[in-house]
Write the C-alpha cells for this entry.
Amino acid sequence: MELLPPFHVATPGSIAAAVAAGQDHAASRFIAGGTDLMVNLRHGIGDPATLIDLRGIPELRHVSAEPDGLVIGAAVTLAELAEHPAVASRYPAIATAAAAVGAPAHRAAGTVGGNLCLDTRCIFYNRSAWWREANGFCLKYQGDTCHVAPTGKRCHAAFSGDLAPALLVHAAEIDIAGPGGVRRQPLAELYAEDGAAHLSLAPGEFLVRVVVAADPWPASYAKARARGAIDFPLAGVAVALRRSGEEVDGLRVALTGTNARPFLLAGTDALLGAPVSPAWLDRLGRLVQKQVSPMRTTLLAAQYRRRVAAALAQRLAATLGGLDAVGRAA
Ligand SMILES: Cc1cc2nc3c(=O)[nH]c(=O)nc-3n(C[C@H](O)[C@H](O)[C@H](O)COP(=O)(O)OP(=O)(O)OC[C@H]3O[C@@H](n4cnc5c(N)ncnc54)[C@H](O)[C@@H]3O)c2cc1C
Ligand code: SF4
C-alpha cells in the first residue's frame, strides 16, 4: 500500500453545511466510516483535496420506526443497524445483511450510506498503484483497456455491498441531498450497470436516509463468500416472499456481487399464484441464472457465481415458501 496522500477534512454539523462544503471544495469526496474509501486512497485510487465527513450530522445518525416505515440515517453504522430492536425483529433480512458485512471492526465503523455507495470491485482494480501501473492500469481508472473484457468498452467490476439487496426487496426509497435540495427516489434508481459509473449521484450529492415500508413481507438474505469470517459476497441474494394460503402472492428477489449494480430480478410476476414447489424453484433458478452476469472479476469462476446465486435464491425461497432444503413440505 502507498502512503495516504495529503487531504483536508471538513466536518459539517448539518445537511446544509455538508452541501455547502461540497460546493466549496470541488475536488472533494464524502466519507463516513472510511472502511472502503481509505483503502482505495491507500491504493492510489483517487486523490481528493478534501474529505467531507458526514458522521457529525445528527439527522444521519438515527434509526427510527415511524408509523409509515423504518427510517435509517445514512451515517448509522452497520453494527447499530443489525442490533436495532425494530430491525432485528421486523426486518431480519436487513439485520442479517448488515451483520454479514466484513468483520466486527468494519461493522463498527462502516455505515449504511458507505455500504450503499460502495465502489465496485475487481481483481484488476483493488490492487496497489504499482501493481495496476505494471498492468497498464485499466478502463475503470487511469487506463483505457478492460482486462476482463478487452474488446468491450465498459467496466464489469462487481458491486459487492451486502445491504442493497436486503433493502431492495423491501422496496426501499432514499433521500438524496445536494445543491438542488433534498429529493426522494427508489433505491433501485441509484444504480446503473456500469462498473466505472454505477451510482447516479450528481456532483455534490449524498445519501441522507433510507426509508423502508412499515409492512414488510417475510424476507431473508444469504451470501456466498470465499472466507466465512470476513469477505465480500461472491453472490448475495435477498428474497421477500408473501403467501396467501399456499400460493405465493408477492415475490421480490434482489442480487449483489454478480453485476455492476445490485438489482431486482425481473419477471417474478410469472411465479405468482402458485405454491412453492420443486418445479417452481427450478423456474426461479433459471430466472436468476439468466439475469446475473458475473465476469472474471473475482478469483472464483463466473459460472460458479452464477450457479451459487441461483442456489441461494432457491434455498431462501424454499424456506420462506414452507419447504425444507430438499423441496419437501416443511
Ligand atoms: C477487509 C474488508 C472486508 C469487507 N467486507 C465487506 C463485506 O463483506 N460486505 C460489504 O458490503 N462490504 C465489505 N467491506 C467494505 C466496507 O467495509 C463496507 O461496505 C462499509 O459499509 C462501507 O461503509 P463506510 O461508511 O466505511 O464507507 P466509506 O469508506 O466512508 O465510503 C465508501 C464510499 O461511499 C461514499 N459515501 C459514504 N457515505 C456516503 C453517503 N452518505 N452518501 C454518498 N456517498 C457516500 C464515499 O464517498 C465512498 O465512495 C469490506 C471492507 C474491507 C476492508
Ligand atoms: S472490469 Fe475491467 S475496467 Fe473494470 S475494474 Fe476490472 S479490469 Fe478494470
In short: The longest strand covers residues 235-244. The chain has eleven helices and twelve strands. The chain has a mean pLDDT of 95.
